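stuck on this fold:
=====
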Amino acid sequence: MPFSPEALETRSVAFVFQTSEVWAIDTWLLAAAPSDLVIVDIERLFTQRLQEYAAFLTHLGLQPPYHWIAGLIGIKDRRLQRPPPPGQMWFPGWPGSQCLSETVQKEGEYDTQQERSSALIPFFKAIFDACGIPRPD
């Protein structure tokens, strides 16, 4: 959706096909922080979108489980920004772990009964792996 009616570009779009596939592209998060991967925002947005797309498919009468494929492109050399561990703090300007992969992609199933974020954990772990550190539980 464009930010204004006069806008000529958009940072996100979703397509729904007659095959019941939903394809979505959202570049807002990567454009907002060109040198970083803000993992808290990535996990929140992907989890929210998964729930929204599942609800949409359910309203069409399609039953779960739903197969998902999630990915990020253009992340090489970005710094993974994550919250500090409990009892610790990060200093402003502290660089996060550098991502060495250009892309991250995972796929899985979402049955709508499981916790939303748990369905995407393999994808979130793959982001951390691409940046050379384990994802905290």
Observations:
- The radius of gyration is 16 Å.
- The first strand starts at residue 12 and ends at 16.
